[in-house]
Specification:
By secondary structure, this protein is of the alpha/beta class. It has a single domain, classed as 3-Layer(aba) Sandwich (Rossmann fold), CATH 3.40.50.2300. It is 39% helix and 12% strand. A four-stranded parallel beta sheet has the order 2-1-3-4. Bound molecules: 4-nitrophenyl phosphate. The site of 4-nitrophenyl phosphate has 11 residues, from loops.
């Protein structure tokens, strides 16, 4: 319930590789914000560096497209300290992503007070609140579908919480 007070001007979605969950979340979040009439800068990044410069995983692209989300032009990048200065809110797809982000945040100088708030992506979700968005990378097609369902639900919950203001 940390962001109830106001709509952020920028949101960063973070997973491990930035090729499955967070690029999908980036496009879903962008579309939902636009439909709600909210002007929010949306981006995504990964905590890992293996896929920097890569397009989203082919399976993620295919499942996203089947639900009306075009993510093929997105390019993976790694999260960095400047993201904590440049975004109002950083949302982690799972608890490990959140712990890794907290470790980066802990390395920032204490004097920097104008930094992003951190939360789990599912935090506001009445259905999936507190759950991880499962890592689909080594999973089957069913996990990619579950990822879309959970991301749509949790993104909607954030947008609704801001629209209600
Ligand atoms: P994502 O999925 O974090 O949803 O992008 C993964 C992509 C790649 C790897 C792990 C998870 N990997 O180990 O390379």
């Amino acid at each position: 319930m940390i962001m109830k007070t106001c709509t952020p001007s920028s949101v960063l979605l973070v997973c491990l590789g930035n090729i499955c969950r967070s690029p999908t979340a980036e496009e879903i979040f962008r579309q939902q914000a636009a439909i709600a009439g909210l002007s929010i800068k949306v981006d995504s990044a990964g905590t890992g560096d293996w896929h920097i410069g890569h397009a989203p995983d082919e399976r993620a692209q295919r499942h996203a497209k089947a639900h009306g989300y075009k993510i093929n032009k997105l390019i993976a990048r790694q999260v960095n300290e400047n993201d904590f200065r440049n975004f109002d809110l950083i949302l982690a797809m799972d608890a490990q992503n959140l712990a890794d982000l907290q470790a980066i945040e802990n390395d920032l100088a204490d004097t920097e007070n104008n930094r992003a708030k951190l939360a789990l992506f599912s935090e506001e979700d009445p259905t999936y609140g507190g759950d991880d968005v499962p890592d689909p990378y080594k999973g089957g097609e069913d996990v990619f579908e579950e990822v879309i369902e959970r991301i749509e639900s949790s993104a909607r919950a954030w947008i609704e919480s801001w629209k209600a203001r």
